[in-house]
Amino acid sequence: MEEVRLMKGNEAIAEAAIRCGCDGYFGYPITPQSEIMETMMAIAPWNTTGMVVLQAESELASINMVFGAAGCGKRAMTSSSSPGVSLMQEGISDLACAELPCVLVNVMRGGPGIGTIQASQADYYQSVKGGGHGDYKMIVLAPASVQEMADHTVLAFDLAFQYRIPTMILTDGIIGQMMEKAILPPFRPRLTNDEIREKYPWATLGKTADRAPNYILTLELYSEDMEIINLRLQANYKRIQEAEVRYEEFSCEDADYLIIAFGTSARISQKVVELAREEGIKVGLLRPITLFPFPTNEIKAYASQVKAMLTVELNAGQMVDDVRLAVNGQVPVEHYGRLGGIIPTPDEVLEAMKRLIVNK
Amino acid sequence: MAKVKGAIVVNTERCKGCNLCVVACPAKVLSLSPDSNLKGYNFSYMSNADSCVGCAACAYVCPDACITVYKVKNKTE
Amino acid sequence: MTLNDIIDPKNLVYAKTKVMNDTPMHYCPGCSHSVVHKLIAEVIEELDIQDKTIGIAPVGCAVFGYKYIDIDWQQAAHGRAPSLATAVKRLLPDRYVFTYQGDGDLAAIGTAETIHTCNRGENIAIFFINNGIYGMTGGQMAPTTLNGMKSTTSPSGRTVPLSGHPLDMTKLLAQLDGTCYVTRQSVHNIANIRKTKKAIKKALENSMLDKGTSVVEIVSTCSAGWNMTPADSNNWMEQNMIPAYPLGDMKDI
Ligand code: SF4
Ligand code: SF4
Questions:
Q1: Which residues from A are below 8 Å from C84, CB to CB?
Q2: Tell me: the pLDDT tens digits for A231-272?
Q3: Above 0.90 for ipTM, yes or no?
Q4: Is any ligand 2 atom within 6 A of the Cβ of residue B25?
Q5: Helix and strand tally (H, E) in chain C?
Q6: Interchain proximity B61–C190, CB inside 8 Å
Q7: Against a cut of 0.90, is the pTM above it?
Q8: Does the CA dihedral C60-C66-C71-C74 come out positive or negative?
């Protein structure tokens, strides 16, 4: 039976994680995402599903707890906000190298530095380009509603385990804090150790007599072998790029101009599309749901339909680079954004769109 | 009268010639060989096999677990 | 009686444990790491817990520990082994979980993780190799390097004004309510090797008794880093390290 609730985005993540069989959450408080751990602590899932919820001493500790849990084939997650995610980068690189599935949530706030606690999308580069050292990627999901916060939590675990890759939910303080109606996912039991042994033979659950020891490693001193690891990772990213692109389109069929925006910016941009069309300007919106894999081909296809593209981002222009790469100079691509936690109004964005139309 | 007789077998390829077994042996049974193994280490061997009592001191201290120890209680001939 | 009569399986008194495989260890000749690896493997065999033990290797010389002891292993980022172990043990409470860490890993970069893991009283065993030096990176100063002791980053000897005091982490950990067994041992002679083995066994057994964290520090040598023969290293350690890091149980409840 469907369970519909009015709740905050952060709460939806917590609820969905418990319901989809998460084994362990390890986190450290930071605004604007602390409700995720608070909600879990209030629900106390260790009494019901047996899930472990632990407040760690730092983001360094939490990401490495995720590593330990994921190495055992367990469904592990952490959440944080921008400065905390910066602290986690070494751990994320390690998780990527060891090909460990896990779910990371970044409820972005404005930087750089300790910055502001207001919403931002300035961690796009960090999330999709591999914020830590080495060549690696994560799957990055960008929810735009409380419903998607819940849905993406389930999806993130599924994709993480399907591809053995850290998967990030990249959201911001607005979606984390706002309340909307959400249908909660159905309960899914946690896997038993025997089921994990069967499904994930690499997991370190204890070396039984029937197999060699399992190792979860991130060190390889021989360059030839390290290259092999890298090539395996790259092949995985290619598979993901081919199979897992997700996006949504609004009024794109007849569009002369295209806005590309994710998360909170996409919500604002939807309004911009309406305002523009009231004035007779045919604007469409393409909302990437996966930031890696990025809808490169889909955006490229629009380059022969529209006259110009505008990315709307709560940053100084990051995703715009990927749109430009996709379009490869075929049409002008500009960026509009506000910084430091300021949210642009739809009118402001519409003005930017009009400037682009005049100048193109 | 019972006399304890011991003997050891050194895994000469595993041995790193660290000399700790030589120092640890209470009966001065061991020495490092003038010959070396494939890695270039002068491995340990029983230069005075008759004195070995099979106490396993050498094996306990051997960092690399190279030494297997045998011991018999034997009536004097 | 010939040697061949004695060398017979029925007369066997000591052989390498099967939990330790035949891969030659990468450690330098005479290294304390090797002795401790051997003891851990022997204890795992004696307790018959090979299928229930998960080791967490550090960054440092022991990063390759997984190659020699045939159990499941995870290898942690520098200093974070206790965090990995925390999660593994919480999610697999019926497994024996231990970390194996050097002084740089446990007492420098991983200080926070070590202290908080012990303070939470995680039911794990921590094996702490203290040789007063960074072995793997080529002999730099460690937090436990003695005053006056030379290293590549304290070429004239460590001084307090420049580098502060040697850190006695184990003493600190004994103060925490979360630890149940904190001991300092060494492996430089047979008597101490036997004591260390007992301590390792006790620490692993404790991890199933819901008593809290067990910490076994092993004051160790690094003959390559110290620039001495293994036997001289053992003597030097006895004369210099052990007075600064006295052996014995600091806590046993
Ligand atoms: S068993 Fe004892 S007596 Fe024999 S070689 Fe070893 S230490 Fe010496
Ligand atoms: S202690 Fe072991 S490694 Fe060292 S010399 Fe003796 S047998 Fe060889």
A1: 64-65, 67-68, 71
A2: 999 999 999 999 999 999 999 999 999 999 999 999 999 999
A3: yes
A4: no
A5: 11, 10
A6: yes
A7: yes
A8: positive
